[in-house]
Amino acid sequence: MKRINLTALVSTALIAASLAAPASAEIGRHTFKISNGAAEDHPVSAGVKGMSACLEAKTDGKMKLRGFYNGELGDDAEATQSVRSGSIEMVVTGAAAIGGIEPAMSAFELPFLFTSDAEVDAVMTGPYFDHVAAKMPAHDLILLSIWENGFRNATNAKHPITTIEDFKGLNFRVMQNPIFLDTFRRLGANPVPMAFGEVFTALETGAVDGQENPLPLIQASRFYEVQKYLTLTRHAYSPTPVLISKTVWEGLNPEEQDLLKTCAADGRVKQIERSRAAVNEAVTKLKEEGMEVSELSPDEMGKLPELVAPVYQSAMQTVGQENFDLLSAELKKLRGK
Predict the structure, then answer these.
(1) What per-residue confidence (pLDDT) applies to 275?
(2) 18 in any annotated domain
(3) For this UniProt entry, which residues form the secretion signal (predicted)?
(4) pLDDT in tens, 182-222
(5) 70: alpha, beta or left, given left = phi > 0 and alpha = psi -120 to 50?
(6) How far is residue 244 CA from its own chain's centroid?
(7) What integer pLDDT is reported at residue 168 of this predicted model?
(8) Side-chain-facing half-sphere of 72: CA atoms under 13 Å
(9) Please, what's the b/e burial string for 240-255 (b: 16 or more CB within 10 A of its CB; e: otherwise)?
């Protein structure tokens, strides 16, 4: 009869136990640099801080984020490219910076796509999010969550906009984006593509009459100093995808990956809460600064879908028919159609 080697048995048991040990024992120390183009007092920072607090709480401080703001690590396009290459770990970027590489994200640039915050939240956490997320690894990116910049509104220095006719003849700065350019042409305005950093001076000198952006950004950029009229058009919605480098992602173990997804979702709750509170605060502040705030009547708003319908047709080459059909089907389901 063979003698049992007790030492060997113990060693084998220890090895087996170590292999079966919970993944929590393997969590390493990670400080992820995360870039954003907005100022630190913008609502996006609430998401960054909320996500970091979640990670720190769940890992005893081993995992956390280090936020960089004001485009310190590059503008949206530059920072996104740096994340793709792995030189920056994470970015909270504009959808337009992703739309150039993934058509499924361009669908969000279509005008008057969403009718409410509830629709936004359902789509940004539902099947269409999963559809977009599945496409991102091919671009060396992993989509963790989608936060928001918010609904966009129009300002100008000429006159109130209370009817569609009031857009005619106004020179509007818009993003360097074909869908936005087409939208404002259809509204009757003269769209002028321009980098965001040039907007204040262009408004101040009268090179353009107006611009369009989410309300907190209008306030933070002090556009009220060079714009008199604000119209709550909510003509487009700007999401802000939260992305991590695929190279960095693949260097993490499954538990670390799950923690990032969980905490990105937790950060979204904090970011959305702050973003929507900031919208109400911005309206009050802009009025206090002397801006006249107006809205289009329900009848005028009802004319807009037909007016901008050609934008949808011309955008299909950019957005992709399959992507548009998936998103449209999800919205119809949400609306009970």
Answers:
(1) 96
(2) no
(3) 1-25
(4) 999 999 999 999 988 899 999 999 999 999 999 999 998 99
(5) left
(6) 14
(7) 95
(8) 11
(9) bbbbbbbbbbeebeeb
pLDDT number for residue 145:
98
Which domain covers residue 285, as residue numbers? 28-334
**Residue 17 belongs to a domain:** no
Residue 10 lies in a domain: no
User: 171 forms bridges with which residues in the sheet?
Assistant: 190
Q: CA-CA distance, 55 to 61, in Å (whole number)?
A: 7
Query: How much is the pLDDT for 330?
Result: 97
Question: What CA–CA distance (Å, rounded) separates 107 from 322?
Answer: 11
Mention every residue, 6+ apart, whose C-beta is less than 8 A from residue 301: none
- What's the total number of domains in the chain? 1
Q: Does residue 150 form part of some domain?
A: yes
List the chain residues with pLDDT less than 50: 1-24
CATH number at residue 286: 3.40.190.170
Can you state the angle between helices 127-135 and 321-334, rounded to 10 degrees?
160
User: Which candidate, 34, 32, 24, places its Cα nearest to that of 59?
Assistant: 24
